[in-house]
Design goal:
two-stranded antiparallel ribbon; 6 strands; mainly beta; 99 residues
Length: 99
């Protein structure tokens, strides 16, 4: 279980110069042997700490181990609504691709 951190989601978003706030993941794309990860995603682009515009039909990719090591900020918004739950996370670096 990933315990909640101390940053609010607004503080977390405000700390990002350029990045993606992922709101939905599509499909299944994890190799359980190698940890390679690739999934379709939908979200909002962040520019200078502000949500700027919607983004869709993109792919986020990386390696699970690298992704977990790159988590550098955890939000305080953990809410249990089902068997799966997570606070908002900031991952310092990932690959994003799309048209």
């Amino acid at each position: 279980m990933l315990l909640p951190g101390r940053a609010t989601p607004s503080e977390l978003i405000g700390s990002v110069r350029r990045g993606l706030y992922v709101t939905e993941l599509i499909g299944f794309g994890v190799n359980n042997v190698t940890g390679d990860y690739s999934r379709g995603a939908v979200g909002l682009w962040i520019e200078n700490g502000e949500l700027a515009y919607p983004v869709e039909e993109i792919t986020i990719a990386g390696n699970l181990r690298d992704m977990f090591e790159a988590v550098d900020l955890v939000g305080d918004d953990l809410v249990f609504r089902s068997a799966l739950a997570s606070p908002t996370l900031r991952v310092a670096r990932m690959t994003i691709a799309g048209a």
